[in-house]
Amino acid sequence: MQQARSRRAFGTSAAAGQQSSNDSGAAGKKAGTPDTPQPAGTTKRSLTFAIGGILALLGVTSYTLLRQPSGVPVEVATQSKPTPSSTQTALESVATKRSDALKKLDSLTNKERREEAKRLGLLTAEEVDAVLHAKENSWFIEPVAGGSRLRVDTNQVSSNDPLEDYLAWTTLSSNATNRHMFSVFDGHAGYLCAEQLAARMGPMLDKSLEVIAQLAELKKGIKKPEFEAGDKALVKTIRQIEREAGLNWDHVPLALTATFINMDYELVTGALAEFRKQQQLMRMDELLGPAVSGSCGLVAVVDTEAKEVVVANTGDSRALLGVRLKNGTWKAVRLSQDQTADNANELARMAREHPREDSVIHRGRVLGGLMPTRAFGDCRYKWPLEAQQDLFPILYSRGHRYATTPPNYVTPPYVTARPVIVKHMLSDDDKFIVIASDGLYDQLSDAEVIGSVSQWYEAHQMSASTLTTEDDNAATHLIRAALSTDQSGRRSDTYIRRLLAIPPPHSRRFRDDISVTIVTLNAE
Ligand SMILES: *[C@@H]1O[C@H](CO)[C@@H](O)[C@H](O)[C@H]1NC(C)=O
Ligand SMILES: *[C@@H]1O[C@H](CO)[C@@H](O)[C@H](O)[C@H]1NC(C)=O
């Protein structure tokens, strides 16, 4: 599969448009970003507007975003199959209905919109199917000696335009090939940060595992490793974490922690240093765009030989394990902790790290703005104040609407990308793992998620079963359930037909992007 979205270019105006969809979100539901950021330093702004304008006149409006990752290929979710013409027709009629609805909704006030959205024409059942099937994907991973077979089902249904979630997966090359990475990156303030994570997480994780194995050999006095210059920062991060955490930490948790920290260092601090060194305004968006944007990240490493799963989580995506008990009932087990103000551990950590700052969590958000308490990117919660004062006016004028300093910005950094790790030894009762962005959990409880996927499992993975489900793809089956269930937990086909008729950006008031990966263990 190709990295279809990886070479997207954007200009200053496109960046502004893309972020505006973001702050329109959120009434009632979650949104990762602040409501109305105000530019800092308005006088400087007019000057930097002029610079932006001159660059635009020179035709400097588009940039290739992705730095080429090295090492293992990473598959990033994208529409993979040719779309049948009947589906294409249905998708076109969805687009027409949504664009008519958009004209209607744009002319209304927020309050009127909420009412009007309930009166929009419904999609047909065929149109709903076309939307639900457009990005689904499903495949098997065959075991190498000693492992077991996995089935993977993925799907994404967007609310933001463009979608700000990314899914990425790869088979790790280090230590045999029964180690597989599955991940979800839920972007906010645009997609730029999530896009980088999706492309670079797999290769960097592999590199971390390699470095850790070499360091282990060094300790045993077997071989002196030779690290490449480009890996120096990563090696330093790994050694630092080992010193803090004790030397006998397992390789995979250590590698995940080091990778998350080093990745964020590259995106936020490294990119800033690079920009200051080069002083090239032309490269500003490419280098600093991903730092201004932000993303949650959840990475699960499933080892089918060692029979373990290790989950690293930064933010509010969630991994769940579906367990089938001996008597046939199903149980949901969380493999990650949400990092938001609802998590008492996170509140305590924030208070400890920023003593005497009462407003560090304000209205349930970091400095009143950011919903997750840990995240990648989001330099408005990380850069030193001087760097923000220096660069934010220019970035803002170039369309980066989140390049603004939050109120009460006293002791940065306020947000870390350091993950919380959960390790679980897999037993025969453990049947599948659900990895999803918070858009899914806005709609369904853990028990409802496992309940829904267990129906699919019993129909598709138990040989004697006579059950069937409407969708062959487990992720599609789950997303259909999520979008068909209303606030009071009632399920109806009318609900999803109405919900999917609402056009972006207004849809963001009713639903978030939903991205799901389901990994079936010991698949038939
Ligand atoms: C490789 O995997 C095997 C089996 O899971 C494990 O015993 C061994 O310690 C691993 N080696 C490294 C370097 O991670
Ligand atoms: C199945 O077993 C679990 C734990 O052993 C128990 O809590 C549950 O009530 C049982 N359910 C039924 C229907 O027997």
From TrEMBL:
The chain crosses the membrane at residues 47-66. GO terms for cellular component: mitochondrion. It is an enzyme of class 3 (hydrolase). The keyword Transmembrane helix applies. PROSITE patterns: PPM_1 (PS01032), PPM_2 (PS51746). Keywords: Hydrolase, Membrane, Metal-binding, Protein phosphatase, Transmembrane, Transmembrane helix. Its EC number is 3.1.3.43. One of its GO terms (molecular function) is metal ion binding. Residues 1-43 are annotated as: Disordered. Residues 149-521 form the PPM-type phosphatase domain. The keyword Protease does not apply. Residues 15-24 have a biased composition (Polar residues). PANTHER family: GM14286P, PROTEIN PHOSPHATASE 2C. Belongs to the PP2C family. This is [Pyruvate dehydrogenase [acetyl-transferring]]-phosphatase 1, mitochondrial. It comes from Coemansia pectinata.
